[in-house]
Amino acid sequence: MIMLKSSSEIDIMQTNGAILKECFEFAYDYIAPGKTRLDLDLEIEKIIVGHGARAAFKGFQGFPASTCISVNDEVVHGIPDDREFEDGDIIGLDIGVYKDNYYADAARTIPVGEVSDEAKSLLEVTKDALEKGIEKARAGNRLTDISHAVEAHATGAGYSVVKSLVGHGIGKSMHEEPQVPNFGPPSQGPELQEGLVLAIEPMVNVGGSDVYTLEDGWTIVTADRKLSAHFEDTVAITSDGPRILTR
Rounded distance, CA 45 to CA 20, Å? Predict the structure, then answer.
């Protein structure tokens, strides 16, 4: 069942989104060669808890950390540990916040030092693919108008989108209906209505779209071990167009 939100509910989610914005602003300044994934996770948890919120991912289906930190060919769900960031890495940072009975969810991929031209292009294209998807998050459009916009931009630049992982509705539960694929033809799926809140999250690969899960049971990597990037925002559909709640 698709759950629509009132304006007051969306306001609460935007307040939670502001916590995520602060986390990412911190991460952009903090991430550097020699810092570890675990250090970053602990610092982000401090920010979240400092706002009286809870890190939504910690303990979710057994996930052991507050933040998903995925490096280079790791697509999503990387578990923070004591490995250090290195110059040239790209860091996929996925964070969820829960407060006042509502969730917000967002992701950014952050370069470490001087990255390759290939990595710079991948980050730019993935970020722009998210923008293309958000632009289609308007009342009266169909769900796959978002999906098609993401895929068309990514594949038009010579990249592939991960097809086995999708965005989702979000609200009182972290994952609600509908699922939001990053691929497909336009003009299909449910009609988008005011009050629908979606986590739109392109995952774009330099190589093929296939992925697999490592032995830790969480970390998903590209099958060809080429670079992957991930950008995500929580977006509400309103009478005035898409309202981004996590910026």
Answer: 11
Percent of the chain as helix, strand, coil, to the nearest 5: 30, 30, 40
The CATH number that domain 7-244 falls under is: 3.90.230.10
Strands (E), the chain: 54-55, 67-71, 74-76, 90-99, 102-111, 160-161, 167-169, 176-180, 197-200, 203-205, 211-213, 220-222, 228-230, 233-238, 241-244
| Average pLDDT over every residue of 138-143 | 98
Written as one letter, the residue type at 148 is: H
Listed residue (215, 227, 216, 30) closest to 124, CA to CA: 227
Q: What is the pTM of this model?
A: 0.97
